[in-house]
Structures are given as structure tokens and as C-alpha cells.
Automatic annotation (TrEMBL):
Identification of the protein by name: GMC oxidoreductase
Cofactor (UniProt): FAD
Family: Belongs to the GMC oxidoreductase family.
Organism: Gigaspora rosea
Residues in Glucose-methanol-choline oxidoreductase C-terminal domain copies: 242-386
InterPro entries cross-referenced by the UniProt entry: FAD/NAD-bd_sf (IPR036188), GMC_OxRdtase (IPR012132), GMC_OxRdtase_N (IPR000172), GMC_OxRtase_C (IPR007867)
Length: 403
């Protein structure tokens, strides 16, 4: 991967030794949430220790919690919908959840002065809300769900579109030329679909990250019959600041039925042209030494035995680039925004304390509350939302207890 860094620097892309530092643009090595060389999830990092603290926290007793079972975690439980207080129908008070576990439907109720906190992720929290009667009237009624609170749940579905470009090397085993870590190139794209100029490459106001990693042929259609030691590199431009937004809606009232997801990638032409701009940059990088010399890197999929794409000469027309992007563009698995935090009059579903409008005892804490998608990967921002939410929950709980 150091060859890639050198190739990018040859084009005037500045080196960046800390993408989490003062500026984000440039080429450099990504930072990871790793432990012992392996990726470490937030659950692995925090949940075990957090549960230990809760179980033995002396302050938990006066509030009525038992010492040992202050937190009861149910694995392999699928939440079906929210249970509402039917005695106070107009107030939409959440009192628990219905869930499916070990072959039966069960119910779990909140502790006194507690609340229901949805954290099913960018797709499933909106789905659970809609299954519980909170969402767009038309879609709920079409699925025979009684509307409790009309809100634009499912709208503003955001994600980072990406478009994979691959190259092979004559060096057989990828391990010969990769230290294993992924490299990033973060840059400002050109809005007309041209290769970014020097000024754009040094602009700190970036909108694309190109994620580089060793090629795993099984990731690419048409290459899956080649074994995974095939040497090569993937360069994946990811549009960090998309203009297009999508939506999701219920397909049915069955909680196990996946919702219909409309990502609307590249609906706005600037998204398309910025992606084309980055792909053109990728091609330029691959032509630079030492990639083109020492590693003898060649594009895959264009004018070769793997290619869906044959072109005359070296240039790909903008028309062909458009087809390329629309055919290969895909998700980066960062769905966000479909229960956005904003004033209700501006399409918000949750307020600044992450509480769902028109309900009581109900919060959403996950990527779906982002009003805008972060200009980068979503795991760390989700952790920040969770941390802030924990403060809000403690504040509200303490306030309720002092009444
Ligand atoms: C393949 C992949 C690669 C990624 N790579 C990166 C990366 O490199 N860097 C990065 O920053 N981000 C990455 N992300 C994104 C990151 O994982 C998410 O942004 C982050 O996990 C979102 O957190 P969340 O709490 O909103 O949702 P999630 O982490 O999805 O948590 C939601 C949880 O709710 C559970 N759930 C859903 N529905 C129900 C239900 N009805 N009942 C009970 N439980 C339910 C799910 O099983 C899940 O455990 C990646 C995502 C994927 C899928």
C-alpha cells in the first residue's frame, strides 16, 4: 500500500498522517477501531464493562432496581412493535415492546419512570416506528396500521454511494505488497466530472474518500472463480457528501418482511459527476509509478477477459462513465437519517433530546437520527450519538425522580 501512497503523491495529493487531525484531505493510512489486530465492535469494546458497572453500581438500589438484574439482555430477540398505554390513548405513551424470541411472541415492559429506546439501526428503527403506528399516514393505512402519530418516518434516507474500481498486479500474492492496512485518499471532487485539479486536491473542504484495499476477487462479479490470493487492489470512491436522498416504506405489516428501500443514488446530477471525477482520478493514480512500474498494475474489467467494458483507446467517454457509475454504484452500508432530528415543522421525527414527537417515553438512538449524513464513516458518529443520548437519559431520569 505504500506504493499507492507514493503514486498519489506523484499527482500532487498531499500526504496526511492523521485523518482524524486538523485536516482530512490527502492520502494516508486509515485509523481503525482494532484490538489485537482485529476489528472491535462497540458492543465488544463497551458493553461487557458497562454491564458489570450497572450490576454492581451501589446507587442503583434506591431507585428500585435489583443489584444483579439491573439490566436484562435478551439475545436473538426480534422487536415487533411498541406497546402503548391503551388507558391514555391520546398521549401515545410507550410502555414496552412486543418481541419474538425462541418461537414465541413475548412482551417486555419498562421500569417505572423508564422509557423505550429504539436502537435498531438506520433501517429497522424507522420500520419499528411505522409498525407501531408512527409514520406517514398513507403508507401506514395502505398496510392496515392504525396511525397514532403522523410523522415523516422513512423520509430523508441517506447513505454514501460508492463505486468499485479494481486493478490487478503481476505479483501473484497480495501479501507480497500489502502491509494489510487500508489506505485512504480524501479529496474534493470536480462538479463537472473532470479529474480534480491541484487546487481541488489540496482543498480541505472534501466530499469524496477513496478507500483502497487488497483485491478480494470474490467481491467482484465475474472474478469469483479466481482464488483470493490473486494479486490486486480495489479503489472504492465513496461520495461522502451526497446531494440525493432516498426513502424507505413498509412493504407490509409483517415485522419480518423487509421494508422497501429506495436509495435514489445519483438522482442529483452533481452526485453522478463528482463520482465520475473521482473514478477518473483513480485511473490516473493507477498510471503513476511505482504502481505502473514496480507492481505492473493493470485495470480490471476494461478491455480484458473480465471486462463488461470495452473502450476505444484509453479514454472513457462521460456517457460511458455515467453507465459505469449507474451500473456499479452501490451502498457503503451507512443508512442514516430516516428518523431525523429536526424541528417537527422541518420534517423532524425526533427532537434535540432524541424523543419522538407526539409520544411519551420514546427515544431513538442510532444512525437514523442524523439530520445530515456525516462526511465520513458512520460508526464513530453513532458512538457519539450513543454517548450523548446516555447523558440525556440520565438527566431525564434524574429529573423525573426528583419530582
Ligand atoms: C458491512 C458493513 C461494513 C461497515 N464498515 C464500516 C466501517 O468500516 N467504518 C464505519 O465507521 N462504519 C462502518 N459500517 C457502518 C456501521 O457499522 C454503522 O453505521 C453502525 O453500526 C450503525 O450503528 P447503529 O447502532 O445505528 O446500528 P447497528 O449497528 O446496525 O445496530 C442495530 C442493532 O439492532 C438490531 N436490530 C435491528 N432490528 C431489530 C429488531 N426488530 N429487534 C431487535 N433487534 C433489532 C440489529 O441486529 C443490530 O444489532 C459498516 C456497516 C456494514 C453493514
Amino acid at each position: 500500500m505504500s506504493g499507492l501512497i507514493d503514486a498519489a503523491k506523484t499527482l500532487g495529493i498531499p500526504y496526511n498522517d492523521d485523518f482524524n487531525g486538523e485536516r482530512q484531505n490527502g492520502v494516508g493510512r486509515y485509523q481503525f477501531t482494532n484490538e489485537n489486530g482485529k476489528r472491535c465492535s462497540l458492543a465488544d469494546s463497551f458493553l461487557g464493562d458497562a454491564l458489570k458497572k450497572v450490576e454492581f453500581h451501589p446507587g442503583s438500589e434506591p431507585n428500585g432496581f435489583g443489584k444483579v438484574v439491573a439490566v436484562d439482555v435478551r439475545s436473538y430477540a426480534h422487536v415487533l412493535n411498541i406497546i402503548w398505554d391503551e388507558e391514555n390513548k391520546k398521549e401515545n405513551i410507550a410502555i414496552g415492546v412486543k418481541y419474538f424470541c425462541n418461537g414465541t411472541v413475548r412482551e417486555a415492559f419498562i421500569a417505572p419512570k423508564g422509557e423505550v429506546i429504539l436502537c435498531g439501526g438506520g433501517i429497522n428503527s424507522p420500520q419499528i416506528l411505522m409498525l407501531s403506528g408512527v409514520g406517514p399516514k398513507e403508507n401506514l393505512e395502505a398496510n392496515n396500521i392504525k396511525v397514532r402519530k403522523e410523522l415523516p418516518v422513512g423520509r430523508n434516507l441517506l447513505d454514501h454511494p460508492s463505486c468499485l474500481f479494481a486493478a490487478k498486479s503481476t505479483i501473484d500474492k497480495i501479501h507480497h505488497w500489502s502491509g494489510g492496512s487500508e489506505v485512504g485518499i480524501i479529496h474534493k471532487a470536480n462538479f463537472e466530472g473532470k479529474i480534480p485539479c491541484k487546487e481541488e486536491l489540496s482543498d480541505e473542504n472534501t466530499d469524496i474518500q477513496i478507500c483502497a484495499m487488497p483485491l478480494r476477487p470474490s467481491l467482484i462479479e465475474g472474478l469469483s472463480n479466481i482464488d483470493d490470493n490473486f494479486g490486486g487492489i480495489i479503489l472504492l470512491p465513496i461520495l461522502n457528501v451526497p446531494s440525493s436522498a432516498g426513502y424507505l416504506e413498509l412493504n407490509s405489516s409483517n415485522p419480518f418482511d423487509q421494508p422497501r428501500i429506495h436509495l435514489n443514488f445519483f438522482e442529483k446530477s452533481d452526485d453522478l459527476y463528482r463520482m465520475i471525477s473521482s473514478l477518473k482520478l483513480v485511473r490516473e493514480i493507477l498510471k503513476q509509478p511505482p504502481l505502473s512500474t514496480v507492481y505492473n498494475v493493470k485495470e480490471i474489467g476494461i478491455n480484458d477477459e473480465f471486462g463488461q467494458w470495452s473502450i476505444d483507446g484509453d479514454d472513457i467517454s462521460d456517457e460511458d462513465w455515467e453507465k459505469f457509475v449507474l451500473e456499479r454504484g452501490t451502498t457503503t452500508f451507512h443508512p442514516s437519517g430516516a428518523t431525523k432530528m429536526a424541528p417537527e415543522s422541518k420534517g423532524g421525527v425526533v427532537n434535540h433530546r432524541l424523543q419522538v414527537y407526539g409520544t411519551k417515553n420514546l427515544r431513538v438512538v442510532d444512525t437514523s437520527i442524523f439530520p445530515y449524513i456525516p462526511t465520513g464513516n458512520t460508526n464513530a458518529p453513532t458512538a457519539m450519538v450513543a454517548w450523548r443520548a446516555s447523558r440525556l437519559i440520565i438527566e431525564d431520569y434524574t429529573r423525573k425522580n426528583s419530582l
